[in-house]
Design goal:
single chain, Rossmann fold, 4 domains, 24 helices
Length: 592
């Protein structure tokens, strides 16, 4: 039976916040958990990520809070989370839901100056949301008073146990009042979680949502079988075909995350990377850009992505197969949130076929095998999406100035010819499937309109930033040595002049300006560093940055022509990889 938030016994200030957020009715876990928590019961709730469990415990906590936090008052509720990202998101949810009650929630986690947290605790907070390690740190310092706690929540308990927090959680719970209310939320219920619940919860009520399978039903789940060496090209092809608005790509290791992120940026995909070696400032910058849509792709490890709560993720892509079915469930739970449709794509090598079958069997998910889309499929999808955009534009009106333009040209050309010319300008010159170029691209899944490979240019005696036709033009030492012999100057001459001739077979796209940067691979520069510096310092979307060509001692990057001066000015005062960077407009150099 459908219920409402009002029927659950929530007060008007909270209901007003929910209306402002557009919440219409509670999810199953909210409908059950809110009633039980308001009644004072301990609770074990088993529900998947994305089912609304944060509101399920936050709303009853806010409802039961005493009037407003005051200086010196100890917090009334404590929420433990596995990661700093989840701690920040849960604290923000408390502020949002409790805006009309003046709720003060404080996230505490490592990587943030502890002085800021100390000041907030002295001023008084209602709710503390934190990771076990930093909570214990405050307890040892005597700066976190738990004597007034009425409610303790363990959020994503299975993740906290997987990360080794079992002893820390026990120490924190032992220091809380015996008469507290305790609730445990977990997607799965492994043995350690069940034992902890038995030790610390008193006759808990149980809520179980979606246990018919560990997967989330609104997520379309597919997989492609690919060769190990073809994985990156397959990923590029999938991205071109699916065209995600935002996607998280999961890798097993930090090294793989960095390598894949660099390759994606080098292919002009707006990507950011996230793993455990990043500082908190770097992690915050990455997540800010991802949430703002400045980076459409987030490449991450499982540890870094635990607790991430980004509602607008359209796709999750398993570049590396997860170790177990539970990890698979957690990964794909990052998409299809808040009732939205989502898509989970997994790349499976022949050796991993049996492991993929095991994941499907244990989760009960219908994971469909798909044939890798061809370049023709990609072009057809792009054209179909373009036609849909045209339909929406026509339905939106406001076409009068363009109708006048079309009518003036209509005296010389037919409507079909005019439309075809406009499509050609907007879509680019996409040749039919029978063309030689398409056949060549079919051997390289996901290939975009990128420069010819440096090796091919060198074989033809063509290069960017070199002198005579006989030079190598490659970024490696052999290429520099040959260029030195050809013109007696080496790549230092390129750096002083800024650039060289346009590369054969490649033209800078209309509306983009090519810049020369006096840093390269030998300086430790990665494409992701360059995108981050330009987007951050010049305040332009990372998705607007075009091709990046990396060499040992320098590189080239394409930026929007209208923002070129802004980028040059911003980079002139920026530090990249710990050193000053010099950027100039790349100028063609006459061939000899």
């Amino acid at each position: 039976m459908t219920t409402t938030f009002a029927a659950l016994g929530l007060s008007d200030p909270i209901l007003r916040s929910l209306v402002e957020l557009g919440y219409e009715e509670p999810t199953p876990v909210q409908a059950q958990a809110i009633t039980l928590l308001l009644a004072g019961s301990d609770l074990i709730a088993q529900a998947q990520t994305g089912t609304g469990k944060t509101a399920a415990f936050a709303l009853p906590i806010i409802e039961r809070l005493a009037e407003g936090a005051k200086a010196g008052r100890a917090p009334q509720a404590l929420v433990m989370t596995p990661t700093r990202e989840l701690a920040m998101q849960v604290a923000e949810a408390f502020h949002t839901y409790g805006r009309h009650r003046g709720v003060v929630a404080l996230p505490v986690y490592g990587g943030q100056p502890i002085e800021r947290q100390l000041g907030a605790l002295k001023r008084g907070v209602d709710v503390v949301v934190g990771t076990p390690g930093r909570l214990l740190d405050h307890m040892r310092r005597g700066t976190l008073d738990l004597t007034a706690l009425r409610t303790v929540i363990l959020d994503e308990a299975d993740e906290m146990f997987a990360m080794g927090f079992v002893e820390d959680i026990g120490s924190i719970l032992d220091a809380t009042p015996a008469e507290r209310q305790t609730a445990l939320f977990s997607a799965t219920m492994p043995g350690p979680v069940a034992r902890l619940a038995s030790a610390y919860l008193r006759e808990p009520a149980r809520v179980t949502v979606g246990t018919s399978g560990m997967s989330v039903p609104q997520i379309r789940q597919i997989y492609y079988e690919v060769g190990g060496r073809d994985k990156f090209e397959a990923l590029a092809r999938v991205l071109d075909f699916e065209r995600p608005t935002s996607a998280i790509v999961f890798c097993r290791t930090k090294l793989e995350v960095d390598s894949l992120g660099d390759r994606l940026v080098g292919r002009a995909y707006p990507a950011e990377t996230l793993h455990g070696d990043l500082s908190q400032v770097q992690r915050d910058r990455v997540m800010q850009r991802f949430r703002a849509g400045q980076a459409e792709i987030l490449v991450a490890t499982d540890v870094a992505a635990r607790g991430l709560d980004v509602e607008q993720v359209s796709h999750v892509i398993n570049y590396d197969l997860p170790h177990d079915p539970e990890n698979y469930v957690h990964r794909i739970g990052r998409t299809g949130r808040a009732g939205r449709l989502g898509c989970a794509v997994t790349l499976v090598t022949p050796r991993e076929r049996r492991a993929m079958q095991s994941i499907a069997r244990v989760t009960g998910a219908d994971i469909q095998r798909q044939v890798m889309p061809t370049v023709a499929d990609v072009l057809a999808r792009r054209q179909e999406q373009f036609k849909q955009t045209l339909r929406e534009t026509m339905a939106g009106g406001g076409l009068e100035p363009f109708i006048i333009m079309a009518e003036s040209l209509g005296e010389d050309y037919s409507p079909t010819e005019l439309a075809a010319a406009a499509f050609k300008l907007l879509l680019g010159e996409q040749k039919p499937e029978s063309s030689v170029d398409l056949a060549r691209d079919a051997d390289a899944p996901g290939r975009r309109d990128r420069p010819d490979r440096e090796e091919e240019r060198a074989a033809r005696g063509e290069r960017w930033g070199a002198g005579s036709k006989g030079g190598a033009g490659r970024g490696d030492r052999l290429g520099r040595d040959r260029a030195d012999r050809d013109r007696g100057a080496g790549d230092r001459g390129d750096r002083e002049r800024g650039a060289g001739p346009k590369r054969a077979g490649f033209q800078t796209a209309p509306g983009l300006q090519r810049l020369f940067i006096d840093m390269g691979r030998e300086d430790g520069l990665r494409p992701a560093d360059l995108v981050g510096a330009i987007a951050g310092e010049a305040n332009i979307p990372g998705s607007s940055i075009g091709a990046i060509d990396m060499y040992d001692r320098f590189c080239f990057v394409e930026v929007p022509q209208a923002a070129a001066e802004q980028v040059l000015k911003a980079l002139s005062s920026a530090m990249v990889r710990g050193r000053k960077v010099k950027a100039t407009v790349a100028r063609p150099m006459v061939r000899r």
